[in-house]
Every structure is written in structure tokens, then in C-alpha cells.
Amino acid sequence: MRVAALIVAAGRGRRAVQPGGSAAGAESGLDETPKQYRQIGGAPMLSHAIRAFSDHGSVDEVLVVIHEGDQARYDEIAEGVSAKLKPAVVGGSQRQDSVRSGLEALAGDPPDQVLIHDAARPFVDGALIQRVIDSLKTTMGALPCLPVTDTLKRSKNGIVTETVDRAGLWRAQTPQGFRFQEILDAHRAAAGLSMTFTDDASIAEWYGLPVAQVEGSEANQKVTNSEDFVLAEARLMGATQLDGLRIGSGYDVHAFGEGNAVVLGGVSIPHDMALSGHSDADVVLHALTDALLGAIGDGDIGVHFPPSDQQWAGADSSVFIKDALRRVADRGGRILNADVTILCEAPKIGPHRDAMRGRIAELLALDVDRVGLKATTHEGLGAIGRGEGIAAMATVTINLA
């Protein structure tokens, strides 16, 4: 079963002009680049749709229908995308004409099925594509739909005249899938008629082809006007930022031993005991080190600074933090915030909180308002509650480039 994707990108998209000053819009002060070639997330909108179909394992070939004046623009984004991508064909003055041009171009070596998709829907995903393909196993046409959830009104001359019953009403999306020969025959039959068809399913309905409804996708929104581009850009930028977001957690505990001060968060706090352990036993910086390493999946403090290595005996724990920060930087990472909770019965943390936050902020190169530090007791429960030691938990958030 051979499946072709036909992407319609021949429109002018005048509703999506944006402030600018290109040669095309010099007189109006607007950039009149056709919307399918405008940038979203660092790439032309059309390229997102092309990649969605080219990368899909069930799609064998991809054909794009373009405006006759857009060949140079198209060539820039099509080069090297995929071996599945066929040379573009020129469309007509109406969407229906453009689809027919694409179907005729495929007719020389016809596929079994064709998916017809609007370039203005850049967020089509593989699951939706597959649902349409699967539906064509048992029907001649497949239409992705979503229910109408808003209340619908009919108006005349700006005055609301009627509330429309939305029961049974659906929002149509693309890709719309068809058995190839049947939809080609329908388009040929509809050529030259004075009727207006806004999508391919309506042509199939007019021709008498059964069209099955399949589940659409809320993410598969159509980008029509300038406001849509703002939302689409925010969506893609948000996805990129989230993709680079990493969260790490760390925990450390040390028992008390002889001494007259404890080191917490790089600050020496007078006390009638000290924490026992390798290095200076700073549980706060140790927990933070593990959180940093955990965020990038790079082991823990014991892997990089084993207790058996005597060179770290009594070491300032800032050494461990700086090494972890270097590892984060090597990955292109940036620290966004840190949060620490100290668990102990004594000493009192409150008088030293600001000093510890300041030192941690200095080590992590953060503003102090991005460092949280809290303390709590164990209410007399367990080893910490009996005053036998101090524990710390830390969480950090980083963003990888």
C-alpha cells in the first residue's frame, strides 16, 4: 500500500501580513511574505508540515503544491529535507485548482492513498497521520474532526439573530485522506463548476464518496492571521525551552563528631560539635553537588570524589560544586535556581540563612532570589531527631542549550 502526502502551499495568506519592511511590502510598510514561508520556531511554517510527513514511516512520498512565484523560496527549504520529497508543482488560483494540480502530478505513477494537507497546519503529528491512514483501510475517505464546543450564533447587520444548535457539528481538519483514484475522479468531475468547495471532503461528499470521521487533534491548529503566528511561535519556543529543562535532586547526611563548628552552605557556624566526614562534611554543598550531577545524568559526588582518595580529606566542599558546575557548562547548561532544605535539631539555622543563601548564590553565579534555603527539625524522631547529625536535601533546575 503506497501512501502519498500532498501539501497545499500555493496561497498568498494576506491575513497574516506582519510589520516589517521587505521589498515586497515596501509601499505598505508590511512584510507580505506568504504565510507558509514565514518563520515559526526558526524555520518556515511550510517546513514543519513537510518534515511531519517525510518523517512518518507510513508515508512513501511527499509532494508540495506551490505558487508559481515561490519556487526560489521553496527551493531554500526543500533542499536536503528527505528523499521522499518530490519536485514541487505549481498550483492554481483557488485551493481546489491547486489540489487538482497536485493529484494530476501524482497520477503518472499513482499511489494507493493520498493525504491532502494544508501547509497552514504546521503542528500535525504522527499519531493523527496514522489515524487517517488506518481509516482508509475500510473507507474511501477519512476526515479528522473535533467537536464544536463554543456556542454558535447567527447574526445580520451586526445584530445577533439566532443561536445555532451545535449538536452534531464538528470542526474539520487536515490531512484528509482518500483512496487516490476516487478523489482524483471527484476533483476532475468538479473542475469548472461554479460551486465553492472549501476542502476536499466536501468534494468527496458532493461526488458521493463516503467519508469517515476520525479523531482530530487540538494541537493541529490552523495558522491564519498574525495573532496565530504569535501563539505558534510561543508554543514552539516553549517546547524548545522545556526540552532543555533538567531538574536534579541531591541528599546528604553526616553524623556529629568532636569540634566547635559546623560548615553548612559554605558558612562556618559555631556549635559544640562538628560534622564528621570526608572533606569539610558540608551536607548542603554535597547535596547541591549531587543535584547538579543528577540534572545532567553524570553520577554523584562519590563517583568523582571517592572517599578513599586522601587528597580530598578536609577539602572545602566548594571544590565539588565548582567541578559539577564545569560539567554542567560543558553540556551548555545554565543554572536557573536552587532550593535547599536542612534537617537538624541544632544549631539554629535562621540567624545564618542569609549568609548561606549568599554563598550558594555566589558559587552558582545566581541572583540570591533564585536560591531558596529552609530548615526543619525531625520533631525528635530518628537519628536526626535525636541530634546525632544533620541532613540536607537539594533541588536544582538547569536549562541545557
TrEMBL record:
Region: 2-C-methyl-D-erythritol 2,4-cyclodiphosphate synthase, residue numbers: 246-401
GO molecular function, one term: 2-C-methyl-D-erythritol 2,4-cyclodiphosphate synthase activity
Site entry (Positions MEP for the nucleophilic attack), positions: 166, 222
Residues annotated as binding a divalent metal cation: 252, 254, 286
Ranges where the record places region 2-C-methyl-D-erythritol 4-phosphate cytidylyltransferase: 1-245
Positions bearing the site annotation: Transition state stabilizer: 15, 35, 278, 377
InterPro entries: IspD (IPR001228), IspD/F (IPR026596), IspD/TarI (IPR034683), ISPD_synthase_CS (IPR018294), MECDP_synthase (IPR003526), MECDP_synthase_CS (IPR020555), MECDP_synthase_sf (IPR036571), Nucleotide-diphossugar_trans (IPR029044)
Cofactor entry: a divalent metal cation
A Pfam family it matches: YgbB
Functional summary from the UniProt entry: Bifunctional enzyme that catalyzes the formation of 4-diphosphocytidyl-2-C-methyl-D-erythritol from CTP and 2-C-methyl-D-erythritol 4-phosphate (MEP) (IspD), and catalyzes the conversion of 4-diphosphocytidyl-2-C-methyl-D-erythritol 2-phosphate (CDP-ME2P) to 2-C-methyl-D-erythritol 2,4-cyclodiphosphate (ME-CPP) with a corresponding release of cytidine 5-monophosphate (CMP) (IspF).
NCBIfam families: ispD, ispF, PRK09382.1
Name under which the protein is recorded: Bifunctional enzyme IspD/IspF
Naturally occurring in which organism (per UniProt): Methyloligella solikamskensis
